[in-house]
Description:
The protein has strands at 3-7, 10-12, 18-25, 33-39, 46-51, 57-59, 67-72, 77-82, 91-100, 106-110, 114-118. The protein is mostly beta strands. The strands form 2 sheets. Strands 2, 4, 5, 6, 9, 10 and 11 form a 7-stranded mixed sheet that branches. A 4-stranded antiparallel sheet has the order 1-3-8-7, with no helix packed on it.
Amino acid sequence: QVQLVESGGGLVQPGGSLTLSCAASGGIFSAYTMGWYRQGPGKQRELVATITPGRSANYADSAKGRFTISRDNAKNTVWLQMSSLKPEDTAVYYCYCRAASGRSLWYDYWGQGTQVTVSS
């Protein structure tokens, strides 16, 4: 039902900045918790940041102070602003959506991913 399309990935030097965008379609975007995950080479997918419908943001320790997640419900879009990038930030970044239906029923969705490479 929900489709997520990421964009904005690319190659950036260490210390640089990059902003990822995720456009959502289907369902009621304003009711969803949104987030970003990433998966580096040979690693498991890990959570980077989430943002609730009330715009409460949470970050992994590795992202705090460097990354900012935001959303615009009118545009059905969530962003991840990344600064002070490090080589260890290199990964495929995935947009995430949790669509709840009632107290104990929900569905999780992921986008196709966008590659971020931090290298000199």
